[in-house]
Amino acid sequence: MRNALAAVITGLMAVSMAGCGEGEGEGDDAFTVGLLLPSSAVPRWERFDKPMIEKRVKALCPDCKVAYANAADDATIQRQQMNSLITRGARAIIVDAVDVKALRSSVQAADRAHVPVVAYDRLAEGPVSGFVSFDGAQVGRLQGKALLKAMGDKAKQRRIVMMNGDPVSPNTAWYRKGARSVLDDKVTIRKEYANLEWRTDIARGNMTAAISDLGPGRIDGVLAANDAIASGVISALKSAGVSPLLPVTGQGADLDAVQRIVKGEQTMTVYKSFRQEADVAASMAVALGHGRSVHAIATTTVDSPTTQDVPAVLLTPVPVTAGTIERTLVRDEVYSIHEICPANLRSACDRAGLTGPTTKDTKETKEKEKVKGGDPGGVPARAGVARHLQAVRRRPGAPGRGTATPGR
Q1: How many angstroms separate the CA atoms of 254 and 263, rounded?
Q2: What are the angstrom distances between the C-alpha of 14 and each of 4, 8, 43, 81, 88?
Q3: Is the dihedral of CA 297, 299, 304, 309 positive or negative?
Q4: Do the Cβ atoms of 251 and 139 come closer than 8 Å?
Q5: Is-contact 310 301, C-beta < 8 A?
Q6: Starting from the edge strand earliest in sequence, which strands make up the sheet with 188-194, in order?
Q7: How many angstroms separate the Cα of 107 from the Cα of each of 50, 64, 94, 132, 400?
Q8: Helices 50-60, 274-289: inter-axial angle, 10-degree rounding
Q9: Which candidate, 133, 166, 65, places its Cα nearest to that of 274?
Q10: What is the mean pLDDT of residues 341-350?
Q11: Beta-strand relationship, 269-271 and 318-320
Q12: Where are the beta strands (DSSP E) in 284-329?
């Protein structure tokens, strides 16, 4: 089945990359940017990252094209996609690696072909030219602090289960390190699990095993690394008859997770602005495609196991609880209140204060405010990206500041 899937996806990839053939995009103002995303199962990639990157590339380089492919969580397929982009003449590639180690040889091949690679969300190994992600340690710290607050004094022993992400991802260790910096000496970690491919079903099985081994009355909270894992944890708690549900963290701001927060089933999620990350990645790729340095965009440098001082932008994650959904996700137009609050959640949304205007109303209000000479409700991230782009136009490359080491 895997071989069949690989054949199908490779065929579709060839069609989607047809505009990236040899001889195209050779002019200074017209070239192809490759975009490789890791999964079709996680909602954000197709709904947010892909269209936002495509839109931003077009805004920065009207004659450029984006050749897109999704690896469907298969590292072998992603290597094939990467190699195809190199062969077909992409001038820059944005890639979120399924497996950062497995992709190393393809990153090296891109370097030999003088095709710069921007690592997106996860730091791929090999000679990448730029990296954009969120501060993973801060993600973990936000989760740890939220879990401690939710458990409060009622859980004096603070016995938790720690549900980490896929060990293949360097971000998993990054998140865990941040969480442990907050939780160590304040909780007892009774069980700890790796959840392959961040899968909900695996998380549910692991949590079911933890409940069986420990007993539901001997767990006070669950540190879940992302929303897919949180979904599996909460499903297992419900199946075991745990009531009230335990505090459970998350990450990703998936719509179903936001709705669980509204219902009181999930404690929080960590929001990482899709638009902000997409804008920086597109800016880096277009700059590199034009033969310019990304040092003017980068705000720091990072080290991978293979490459030191990679120019990077590490963005700031934001915690989201029931009381902050409107001023984060709704304000940033990730979701409208109408999307978050179907009829069966209307009363819960009212309790959470989600009674404001729809996305359409919000957009109309913002347009009126812009006409009046301001946009006080605008997204701060956009201003930050604008400053990056102004820097690219105004000044030559300069070395990044500081050093971080994600995924070690």
Answers
A1: 14
A2: 16, 10, 23, 9, 10
A3: positive
A4: yes
A5: yes
A6: 188-194, 159-164, 221-224
A7: 21, 22, 11, 16, 22
A8: 40
A9: 133
A10: 96
A11: antiparallel
A12: 300-302, 310-315, 318-320
* Dist. CA 374–CA 5, nearest whole Å: 50
How far does CA 344 lie from the centroid of its chain?
Answer: 29
- Of the pLDDT bands very low, low, confident and very high (cuts 50, 70, 90), residue 344 is very high
Query: Under DSSP, is residue 192 helix (H, G, I), strand (E, B) or coil?
Result: strand
Q: What is the mean pLDDT of residues 11-22?
A: 42
Coil, strand or helix at 10: helix
Cβ–Cβ under 8 Å, residues 131 and 102: no
Burial 1-10 (b: 16+ CB within 10 A, else e): eeeeebeebe
Question: Residue 215, CB half-sphere, CA atoms under 13 Å: how many?
Answer: 2
CB contact set of 357 (below 8 Å; sequence gap of 6+) = 337, 365
3 state DSSP class of 4: helix
Looking at residue 112, its amino acid is R
> Does pLDDT of 398 surpass 70?
no
The amino acid at 374: G
What Rg, from alpha-carbon coordinates, does the chain have?
A: 22
